[in-house]
């Protein structure tokens, strides 16, 4: 069996789980500037307070998993993406502590609001920059990163950073649609609409730009007959976009979030198709990066048993805290 | 390698400082949350069994402190999981196949468990009822202990590697997972660290209890927590001395150079002395200003006054750890440990005399000792980590060969950022924790769990009662 491929898929699943889950709580923080009142902000924060920690654990699984099963890719990508990784970690610190600190102080509450907003913004931006930096390729010599430490910084990687910020804002807004009512929810609908347009524009631009810039990617997308089913992705993108905009227009509660996830899934698949079979694009394939088989199988046994259990109790937590976080009730005891 | 104003040696030193700094900060939080999570499980269990409201008050009191500390532990922990790659990429490439899966298991068995049930533990009482809530508390407590299991297995493997081979790419590969996980120093290290976490917590709880007793001896909640903490000190501190001794003997067997540095033994000698004081001089290979007891080190390490004890002269100079650091960190750790034993015994005697809550001097001492666990944990960490230098994987991979090809400027800039952010963010967190600790535990607000809440309000209720 091709354990490396199985693991590549599992890592991809955990990265997507991370994006789907932490995406909305990072995005919701970045929407704070549009919600000025303490009351709205409290409701927003409380809608994710019980689950944010679990959401972020997927990021640890992504990092830890990469170290475990693709140590070579981990040890090349981390130095290559040094600065955005560090920036992301620092951003996550500022936003993570805001959950607890914010309610511990009256005088500095707005300072921790700011820490929540900027920390989330920096984390999201850094993640997008990493994505862009991977797409543009990474220089490797002798099992080690060989580029400079500003190689990641191009207008393209910054563009990807902005795209992820907008994308997370969309997830945050549609999460708010699901969890709130009244004026707060109405505002979330409007923000979601704008973010949706923005994200789709970004995805379309990257999809057109990448094949134009990169011959290898172009060949993958345009070579017959593989291109036939690949070309269905833009079609799916169009369908999902229309579905999302209609769901927002019709003021549906839950489906806008799911349609938004659909947008991410399409973009994510496009990314996977573009870089496959590389983990470090154009330098190290997933098979070259893979740890020896017995490391892969040892952890795979655990993942096979534990991931379903993790999905079960994570699902349980979401179920316990299901429903609307009500804004129409005074929050002071 | 990137062109740089600084040398590779500078980059290496900065990377080491960065790792030491971020992990020393991080270890404070788990050392505390492992203990507090178990304490919360005990308190909630006692409340469910006895229905004594004092346990419920204490549970709520410490839950809020736990929430802040846990949050800090999570965010500083995420840094650690990426730090291996950013600054130690050669190590990650070589050791990833061995330690990676162990850390993968830590995420799968511990981190998700803690995070998954933390939400219910903090915000879910109204929604799930007492029994399920207690279950969530237990899961969080168990999760913290499982996490310690895996990460100490990783650390122990780096200290006493076993069950591995080397492949053609120069990576360590696993021959036997059982030998890897249960490597020779692991059981001792795990026991020593878990007890350290419990003791650290016991002295924090005892210190907070003592603070409130000094203000009001009749405070029921303060009495209860002080009493529980002093029981822990009495029972666990001596046990820790015993386990620490076993750990030391194990180290003597597998890392004799480390023990030689701890003891300040430059020369191999019989009737080896125990230095009570001294300044080890790495250059001259002598202990300056020594105050020593002849033969005592032989007695402790070999259980025989006349036994010969291996000194650093048995190892090439380039395999010596920085002796003075290890020597002094060891003395700080042991000194604090012995003080903990003394406080525990003293409290035991006062309890027997029926004066546990009356002895202001005991309370003052307990208050001063409140942070002693943290200091001891970090000192112990320094002993074991500096003591195994120059190796990152003992006897196999030198620390100097393990770092990333990152220029000193990059490592230095990120180090400065970490230092600034950590002091700012965790400093603020410490202030909030101290504020929570100084609130009267007997007046802890108990939310009205019986009142059914509209869906979605539970989280708000708990958060806003803080105001």
From TrEMBL, chain A:
GO terms for biological process: aerobic electron transport chain. It comes from the Bacteria. It is a multi-pass membrane protein. It is an enzyme of class 1 (oxidoreductase). One of its GO terms (molecular function) is oxidoreductase activity, acting on diphenols and related substances as donors, oxygen as acceptor. Its EC number is 1.10.3.14. Keywords: Cell membrane, Membrane, Oxidoreductase, Transmembrane, Transmembrane helix. Signal peptide: none annotated. The chain crosses the membrane at residues 6-35, 80-99, 111-135, 155-178, 190-210, 222-245, 257-279, 299-321. Its main location: membrane. It is found in: Cell membrane. One of its GO terms (cellular component) is plasma membrane. Belongs to the cytochrome ubiquinol oxidase subunit 2 family. This is Cytochrome bd-I ubiquinol oxidase subunit 2. The lineage of its organism: Bacteria, Pseudomonadati, Pseudomonadota, Gammaproteobacteria, Alteromonadales.
Automatic annotation (TrEMBL), chain B:
InterPro entries: Cyt-d_ubiquinol_oxidase_su_1. It holds the Pfam family Cyt_bd_oxida_I. GO terms for cellular component: cytochrome complex; plasma membrane. It is found in: Cell inner membrane; Cell membrane. GO terms for biological process: aerobic electron transport chain. Coiled coil: none annotated. Belongs to the cytochrome ubiquinol oxidase subunit 1 family. This is Cytochrome bd-II ubiquinol oxidase subunit 1. It comes from Pseudidiomarina piscicola. The gene is appC.
């Amino acid at each position: 069996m091709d354990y490396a491929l199985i693991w590549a898929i599992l890592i991809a699943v955990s990265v997507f789980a991370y994006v789907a889950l932490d995406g909305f709580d990072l995005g919701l923080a970045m929407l704070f500037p549009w919600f000025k009142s303490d009351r709205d902000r409290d409701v927003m924060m409380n809608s994710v307070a019980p689950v944010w920690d679990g959401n972020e654990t997927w990021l640890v699984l992504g990092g830890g998993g990469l170290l475990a099963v693709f140590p070579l890719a981990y040890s090349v990508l981390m130095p290559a993406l040094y600065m955005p990784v560090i920036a992301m970690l620092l951003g996550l610190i500022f936003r993570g502590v805001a959950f607890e600190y914010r309610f511990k102080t009256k005088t500095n509450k707005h300072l921790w609001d700011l820490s929540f907003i900027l920390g989330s913004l920096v984390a999201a931006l850094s993640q997008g920059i990493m994505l862009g930096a991977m797409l543009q390729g990474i220089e490797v010599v002798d099992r080690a990163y060989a580029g400079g430490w500003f190689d990641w910084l191009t207008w393209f990687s910054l563009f990807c950073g902005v795209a992820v910020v907008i994308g997370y804002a969309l997830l945050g807004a549609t999460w708010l649609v699901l969890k709130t009512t009244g004026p707060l929810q109405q505002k979330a609908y409007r923000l979601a609409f704008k973010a949706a347009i923005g994200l789709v524009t970004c995805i379309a631009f990257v999809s057109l730009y990448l094949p134009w810039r990169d011959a290898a990617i172009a060949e993958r997308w345009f070579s017959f007959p593989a291109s036939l089913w690949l070309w269905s992705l833009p079609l799916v993108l169009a369908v999902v976009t229309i579905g999302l905009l209609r769901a927002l227009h019709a003021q549906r509660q839950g489906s806008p979030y799911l349609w938004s996830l659909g947008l991410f899934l399409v973009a994510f698949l496009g990314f996977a198709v573009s870089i496959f079979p590389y983990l470090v694009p154009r330098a190290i394939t997933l098979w070259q990066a893979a740890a020896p088989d017995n490391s892969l199988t040892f952890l795979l046994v655990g993942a096979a048993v534990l991931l379903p259990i993790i999905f079960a109790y994570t699902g349980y937590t979401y179920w316990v805290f299901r429903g609307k976080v009500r804004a129409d009730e005074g929050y002071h005891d | 390698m990137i062109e740089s104003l600084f040398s590779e040696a500078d980059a290496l030193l900065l990377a080491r400082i960065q790792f030491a700094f971020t992990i020393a900060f991080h270890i404070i939080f788990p050392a505390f949350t492992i203990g507090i999570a178990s304490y919360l499980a005990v308190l909630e269990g006692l409340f469910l069994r006895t229905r004594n409201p004092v346990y419920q008050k204490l549970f709520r009191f410490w839950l809020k402190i736990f929430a802040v500390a846990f949050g800090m532990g999570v965010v500083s922990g995420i840094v650690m999981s990426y730090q291996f790659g950013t600054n130690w990429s050669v190590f990650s490439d070589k050791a990833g196949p061995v330690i990676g899966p162990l850390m993968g298991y830590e995420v799968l068995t511990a981190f998700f468990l803690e995070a998954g049930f933390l939400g219910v533990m903090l915000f879910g009482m109204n929604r799930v009822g007492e029994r399920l809530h207690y279950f969530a508390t237990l899961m969080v407590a168990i999760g913290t202990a499982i996490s310690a299991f895996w990460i100490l297995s990783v650390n122990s493997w780096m200290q006493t590697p076993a069950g591995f081979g080397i492949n053609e790419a120069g990576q360590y590969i696993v021959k036997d997972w059982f030998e890897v996980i249960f490597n020779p120093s692991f059981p001792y290290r795990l026991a020593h660290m878990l007890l350290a976490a419990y003791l650290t917590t016991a002295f924090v709880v005892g210190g907070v209890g003592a603070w409130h007793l000094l203000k009001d001896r009749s405070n029921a909640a303060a009495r209860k927590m002080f009493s529980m903490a002093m029981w822990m000190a009495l029972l666990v501190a001596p046990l820790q001395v015993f386990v620490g001794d076993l750990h030391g003997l194990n180290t003597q067997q597998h890392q004799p150079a480390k023990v030689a540095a701890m003891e300040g033994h430059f020369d191999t000698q019989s009737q080896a002395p125990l230095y009570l004081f001294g300044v080890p001089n790495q250059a001259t290979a002598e202990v300056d200003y020594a105050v020593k007891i002849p033969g005592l080190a032989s007695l402790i390490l070999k259980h025989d006054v006349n036994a010969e004890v291996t000194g650093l002269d048995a190892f090439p100079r380039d395999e010596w750890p920085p002796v003075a650091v290890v020597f002094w960190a060891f003395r700080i750790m042991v000194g604090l440990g012995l003080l903990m034993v003394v406080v525990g015994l003293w409290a035991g005697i006062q309890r027997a005399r029926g004066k546990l809550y009356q002895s202001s001097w005991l309370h003052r001492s307990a208050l001063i000792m409140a942070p002693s666990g943290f200091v001891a944990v970090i000192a112990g960490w320094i002993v074991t980590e500096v003591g195994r230098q120059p190796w990152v994987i003992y006897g196999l991979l030198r620390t100097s060969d393990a770092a990333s090809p990152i220029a000193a400027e990059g490592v230095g800039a990120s180090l400065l950022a970490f230092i600034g952010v950590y002091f700012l963010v965790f400093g603020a967190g410490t202030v909030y924790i101290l504020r929570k600790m100084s609130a009267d535990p007997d007046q802890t607000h108990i939310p009205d769990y019986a009142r059914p809440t509209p869906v979605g309000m539970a989280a708000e209720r708990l958060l806003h009662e803080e105001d």
